[in-house]
Amino acid sequence: MRGTGLIDCDVHNAVSSDAALLPYLPARWRRHLDLVGSRTFSPFTKGYAYPKAARFASRRDAWPPSGGLPGSDLDFMRAQLLDAYGIEHAVLNCLYRAPEQRNDAFGAALAAAVNDWQVEHWLERDSRLRASVTVPFESPDLAAVEIDRAAAHHGFVQVLLYPRSMAPLGKRRYWPIYEAACRAGLPVGIHAASTTPGPTTASGWPSYYIEDHTGLAVAFQAQVSSLIFEGVFDRFPALRVVLMEGGFAWVPALMARLDALHHRLRDEVPDLEHPPSHYLRHRIRITTQPMEEPERPGDLVPLLREIGQDVLMFSTDYPHWDFDDPQRAFRTRVPADLHQRIMYDNARAQYRFAA
Amino acid sequence: MRTVVVAAVGEIPPGGRKIVEIEGRSIGVFHLADGYVALRNACPHEGAPLCRGALSGAVTSPAPGRYRYERRGEILRCPWHQWEFDVRTGRSWVDPDRVRVRSYPVTVDGTQVIVHV
């Protein structure tokens, strides 16, 4: 990427332990953390539902020499990612489990603590970094309060949701989040994440991580359909949505299918202002990692063209085990104009980074 | 072919490894049970530092319900995407003919471990 800029739209900073958040929690919730601790909807109090491919789902070489979790040491992240690849801006998505708490108010307090911790330890320490606002999205009124509060810091460029929600994200109950995001001028990002209450696939709980990982693409399709048909994009004309780590090969098929069905069934959704594919092309952006790797690598280029030159934004997913190297992720030659848009231009426009 | 001394005998313990720089190339030297092997430290998939990956074995099965864990310490897993390589040949486990990493002969000359590049 020498000569052209590079923006990484999905990097994970990690809270190494709950203790790191204590300075940002009110006494009432510090006590709660001490007495009750984290109670999520996951059956696993520690760790995640699947062992994944590697410890903490991370690159084996991403454990900082200083100790702590991958993604918890800014200096090491600088050396291994930001400096190594000449990244101009990176968007941090902290996957700390604040939004998954059963206690709504505790989840909101944790989310606020995560955001304050991000400001102090990340955003104010490296001008290349931006971050998503962690919100308790299953309590949309509390999430809206946190968006209003956190968005005051210019380093926050997005609101973070997960695709495994209690109900499809287009439902009215979630609209206060979109209202607040529009008020703050921020897009809403939906990032693949661990166990929120629903099963990980549309057909219940699978046995293997390989099923879980693949099922995410289907979860994203369900969320996109919900946002379109519940009228979220029409109701909030300023709203932009970013899909992160859900794959993208499914996009042309979904657009074709939704448009074809809309021709025949549009009486059911008479309020929709555009054909479904319009929203996908104009209101939704998608990050590239995990990169599709077709059997014949060259088959990727027509796929990128079909999705649209404005839609895809490059991401590495550092420090996770399925990290994409900015110089090697496309295993085929991508035409220069398209490459430039994916690596830089689209993200710059989406997040309004200064030139 | 050039010969490069990369370590003293005894410096790399059995099961251990040393990553060296030779003419701008990063190369991993592994001490197996019966000698040394050397591989290019770059995964052919996305260029990860392959030789920093975990060494494990392979599970094989001659028949349903019967399995064996064999070749302990001879299967190298890439630290990023977990692609597996035979540390003795550099060939990948899933697609040995098409996906392979360069391997180099290693000899021991008295007290020195020598890689031939």
Automatic annotation (TrEMBL), chain A:
User: Keywords assigned by UniProt?
Assistant: Lyase
Gene Ontology biological-process annotations: secondary metabolic process
Keyword Magnesium on entry = no
Where does the Amidohydrolase-related domain start and stop, copy by copy?
7-353
**Highest rank taxon of the organism:** Bacteria
List the Gene3D superfamilies hit by this protein, alphabetically: Metal-dependent hydrolases
Q: Which GO terms describe its cellular component?
A: cytoplasm
Q: Which GO terms describe its molecular function?
A: carboxy-lyase activity; hydrolase activity
The protein's name = Amidohydrolase
Q: Which organism is it from?
A: Pseudonocardia petroleophila
Automatic annotation (TrEMBL), chain B:
Transferase found in the keyword field? no
> Which parts of the sequence belong to the Rieske domain?
4-115
In terms of superkingdom, the source organism counts as: Bacteria
What does the UniProt keyword field contain? 2Fe-2S, Iron, Iron-sulfur, Metal-binding
Please give one Gene Ontology molecular function term for this protein: oxidoreductase activity, acting on paired donors, with incorporation or reduction of molecular oxygen
Q: Does the keyword Repressor apply?
A: no
What protein name applies here? Rieske (2Fe-2S) protein
Traced from the root, the source organism's taxonomic lineage reads: Bacteria, Bacillati, Actinomycetota, Actinomycetes, Pseudonocardiales
